[in-house]
Specification:
This protein is of the alpha+beta class. It is built from 14 helices and 11 strands. Among the domains are: 110 residues, Trigger factor ribosome-binding domain (Alpha-Beta Plaits, 2-Layer Sandwich), CATH 3.30.70; 96 residues, Chitinase A, domain 3, CATH 3.10.50.40; 77 residues, no CATH class. The strands form 3 sheets. Strands 6, 7, 8, 9 and 10 form a 5-stranded antiparallel β-sheet that branches. α7 crosses α10. GO terms for molecular function: peptidyl-prolyl cis-trans isomerase activity; protein folding chaperone; ribosome binding.
Length: 446
């Protein structure tokens, strides 16, 4: 087989392939063995028609398309490997010649992975940040923990306020006609959560236990139910009960209830250490993002639309999987959000382009710096995955190999090592002082 590659644009070229006549003959044999099973020729059982009689009756040309379908994929794959190109989209194939006793010649217009011209990627400057937890941050976390461990107590003598849970009946109608989903009994609604139609919760605020009220609202123009979008509605509301969060006291008893510590001070010290560790990880992630974005911004690369579309498809699939883990699916999400699938894909396009660009640049940096993945590193990653999934490393390796994902694991490790390299070779610089920070100095200078 002969294969040649000619670039016609930056990311586009033509692959010309010639396959020998002997392989064409072998493909025709396979095509005949497939087609003859269904051939209906008087005097012969299906599958038993001799080849010469078949070709005499139907013509050898009747085998060509099946033979092409057999031969083309394997020939294209071999040609891609021989010319060392990396296609990123389905090729546009033009059959130049296919006939019995002749070579098979075809051309394929192929979009390939783009070339990346690296700019500066070592010595990149990133803002210096410290993983220090302020008193305000510690108090905010304590407040959040108080909220989590709050008790709901029934309030009989006060009107409902934001933050309360109102247990209500409601009966909604548009133009005096009830609509589907507009009725419920003893529904618990957290006021201020914005989980109902805009304007509904605000009108329940101030109602007391036993009160009745007509709540008038207008559905948003972009509401997911088209028959209600933009319509004025009236909800007849009855309040059965009002519940209010009662926060626990921040004292030693609270520390004992929520932790292994005996005193609040011990618990606060441990909590501060946890927050610092968490912030350290966040800052590490922020620094990694900063250096990768900077290296990508300094590089020159034209990304084919096909690569962006492929990444958008991956992102949509991942999002759908996350929805299913939460008991939803894509159709439900689109219905609730009032979006179309095209809207969602358009929202993801910018992030998809950024991901593709960053990964292309990281791949080229890894080659430039000879960053390689050792077998020990792969084994360590397999061991970590095995521990997470309660399987053996051998089982994980077999599963990945069966799925064709073992090379992807190698790529992921290489990606992380390349990001670590960029971080190690970056430079932390002090961020310029803000006006607020500079104010005390200016005041003292006066």
């Amino acid at each position: 087989m002969k294969a040649t590659w000619e670039k016609i644009e930056k990311n586009l070229g033509v692959l010309e392939v010639e396959v020998g006549a002997e392989r064409v003959a072998a493909a025709l044999d396979k095509a005949f063995n497939k087609v003859v099973k269904k051939a209906n020729v008087p005097g012969f059982r299906k599958g038993k028609v001799p080849r010469p009689i078949f070709e005499s009756r139907f013509g050898v040309e009747s085998l060509y398309q099946d033979a092409i379908d057999i031969l083309l994929p394997e020939a294209y794959g071999e040609a891609v490997e021989e010319t060392d190109i990396f296609p990123v989209d389905r090729p546009e194939v033009d059959i130049e010649q296919f006939a019995k006793g002749q070579p098979f010649i075809f051309k394929a217009k192929v979009t390939v992975k783009p070339e990346v011209v690296l700019g500066q990627y070592k010595g990149l400057e990133v803002p210096a940040q410290k993983a220090e937890i302020t008193e305000d941050e510690l108090n905010a976390e304590l407040k959040r923990l108080q909220e989590r461990h709050a008790e709901l107590v029934v309030v009989d003598d006060e009107p409902a306020a934001n933050g309360d849970i109102a247990v209500i009946d409601f009966d909604g109608s548009v133009d005096g006609v009830q609509f589907e989903g507009g009725q419920a009994e003893r529904h618990s609604l957290e006021l201020g959560s914005n989980s109902f139609i805009p304007g509904f919760e605000e009108q329940v605020v101030g109602m007391s236990t036993g009160d009745f009220k007509d709540v008038e609202v207008t559905f948003p123009e972009a509401y997911h139910a088209e028959n209600l979008a933009g319509k004025a509605a009236v909800f007849k509301v009855k309040v059965h009960e009002i519940k209010r969060k009662q926060l626990p006291e921040l004292d030693d008893e609270f520390a004992k209830d929520v932790s292994e510590f005996d005193t609040l001070e011990e618990y606060k010290a441990d909590l501060k250490a946890q927050l610092e560790s968490r912030k350290q990880e966040e800052l590490k992630g922020a620094r990694e993002t900063a250096v990768v974005d900077a290296a990508a911004a300094n590089a020159e690369v034209e990304i084919p639309d096909a690569m962006i579309a492929s990444e958008v498809a991956n992102m949509v699939r991942d999002f759908d999987n996350r929805l299913r883990q939460q008991g939803m699916n894509m159709d439900m999400f689109l219905s609730f959000s009032g979006q179309t699938r095209e809207d969602l894909e358009l929202q993801m396009k910018g992030d998809a382009e950024k991901r593709v660009r960053n990964n292309l640049v990281l791949e080229v940096i890894a080659k430039a710096e000879n960053i390689e993945v050792s077998e020990e590193e792969v084994n360590a990653e397999l061991a970590s995955m095995a521990e997470s999934f309660k399987r053996t490393p051998e089982e994980i390796r077999s599963i990945l190999a069966a799925n064709g994902s073992l090379s992807s694991l190698n790529d992921e490790i290489s990606l992380r090592k390349t990001i670590d390299f960029l971080v190690e070779n970056s430079v932390e610089v002090e961020a310029p002082a803000t006006q607020e920070e500079a104010a005390p100095e200016e005041a003292s200078a006066e």
